[in-house]
């Protein structure tokens, strides 16, 4: 996939303001201590990072999107960097903890070999006794939206394989994550999966349409630019019967995987 920055901090806040607010469980698993030095992978515009900053000694926070990093706040103990999590330098530092919230399903949309190398790199960046703590989209995450987008693309003449290949996410299962972590040398201490039905924002630029425009931008590039907005409308129409509740609002099935993995020595 082309290395294009599709992220917009304002659009992210409009469409997905719920994401950092729903990180309570994974932050509790992180269990930051005052002397911890933390690497935050896929920090976005730094909203969650800002809440972690007072809890530890220092943070290095990275994201591959220059536009998201440009929106990060200035924090006294935090360095924000534009960097790919797939090409981390082993000499940047060693960290007592490495953290990622709502980012690994983007980072790991790569080859199986690059996935394995990523976990090996994370292992080498941790101090002995350090932990890697993450929450990400799991197998089955937003399956209804994913299927609706593929259906609309194929209905508009996109070959099914091209539509599938345009997907920007990798939603791993517990078995896949455990295998990758253990192959890199980690001891897995916690592994859990949760179905978390989530209400989308009701802003005029949010909801299903805003979600698809922002998070599925790579998939929409299968279509000519003049077709994309109508395709987004079709996705919304397809999903009405499965996302609208009698009490109102649009709800989608987020499936989350969380883990704590430790480097023992």
Automatic annotation (TrEMBL):
Positions of transmembrane segments: none
Residue ranges constituting the Methyltransferase type domain according to the UniProt record: 39-133
GO terms (BP aspect): methylation
Keyword tags: Methyltransferase, Transferase
Tagged with keyword Transferase: yes
SUPFAM superfamilies xrefs: S-adenosyl-L-methionine-dependent methyltransferases
Any one Pfam family match given in the protein's UniProt record, by short name: Methyltransf_11
Record-linked InterPro entries: Methyltransf_11, SAM-dependent_MTases_sf
GO molecular function, one term: S-adenosylmethionine-dependent methyltransferase activity
Entries under CDD domains matching the protein: AdoMet_MTases
Family matches, as PANTHER family: TRANS-ACONITATE 2-METHYLTRANSFERASE, TRANS-ACONITATE 2-METHYLTRANSFERASE-RELATED
Listed name of the protein: Similar to Uncharacterized methyltransferase C70.08c acc. no. O74529
UniProt source species: Pyronema omphalodes (strain CBS 100304)
């Amino acid at each position: 996939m082309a290395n294009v920055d599709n992220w917009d901090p304002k659009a992210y806040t409009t469409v997905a303001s719920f994401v950092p607010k729903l990180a309570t469980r994974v932050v509790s698993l992180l269990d930051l201590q005052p002397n911890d030095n933390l690497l935050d992978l896929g920090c976005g515009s730094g909203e969650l990072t800002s809440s972690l900053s007072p809890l530890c000694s220092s943070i290095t926070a990275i994201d591959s999107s220059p536009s998201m990093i440009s929106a990060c706040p200035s924090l006294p103990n935090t360095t924000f960097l534009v960097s790919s999590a797939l090409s981390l330098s082993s000499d940047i530092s060693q960290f007592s903890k490495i953290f990622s919230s709502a980012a690994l399903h983007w980072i790991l949309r790569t080859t199986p070999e690059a996935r394995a190398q990523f976990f090996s790199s994370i292992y080498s960046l941790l101090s002995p006794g350090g932990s890697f703590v993450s929450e990400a989209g799991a197998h089955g995450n937003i399956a209804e939206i994913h299927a609706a987008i593929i259906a609309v693309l194929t209905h508009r003449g996109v070959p099914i394989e091209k539509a599938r290949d345009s997907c920007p996410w990798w939603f791993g299962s517990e078995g896949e994550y455990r295998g990758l972590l253990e192959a890199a040398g980690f001891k897995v201490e916690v592994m859990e999966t949760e179905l978390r039905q989530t209400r989308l924002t009701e802003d005029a630029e949010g909801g299903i349409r805003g979600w698809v425009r922002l998070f599925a931008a790579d998939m929409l590039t299968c279509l000519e630019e003049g077709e994309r907005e109508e395709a987004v409308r079709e996705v919304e129409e397809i999903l009405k019967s499965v996302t609208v509740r009698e009490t109102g609002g649009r709800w989608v099935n987020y499936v989350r995987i969380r883990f704590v993995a430790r480097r023992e020595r």
